[in-house]
Design a protein that fits this description.
The protein is mainly α and about 70 residues long. It is built from two helices and no strands. α1 packs antiparallel against α2. The radius of gyration is 19 Å and the shape is rod-shaped. About 5% of the residues are buried.
Length: about 70
């Protein structure tokens, strides 16, 4: 599942929970699904950050920091 798919499904889950129309059991299932989707999104973002950090280090000549290039 891509980041965008997980994020979009998470938005739907949150919306369903906010409506308050689900039974307790359905709400618990939605909550658990939302937690799993949130973890998936976080994993994607952590991976993306790691790739960006690696690319930045490569662009800086193997990790030598130059002043002012930090985000």
């Amino acid at each position: 599942m891509s980041y965008e798919q997980a994020r979009d499904e998470l938005v739907k889950v949150v919306s369903e929970l906010e409506q308050g129309n689900a039974s307790l059991e359905q709400s618990l299932q939605l909550w658990e699904r939302g937690e799993a989707l949130a973890r998936r999104c976080e994993e994607w973002l952590i991976g993306a950050k790691a790739r960006l950090d690696a690319a930045r280090l490569g662009a800086q000549g193997g990790g030598q920091k130059t002043g002012g290039d930090e985000f």
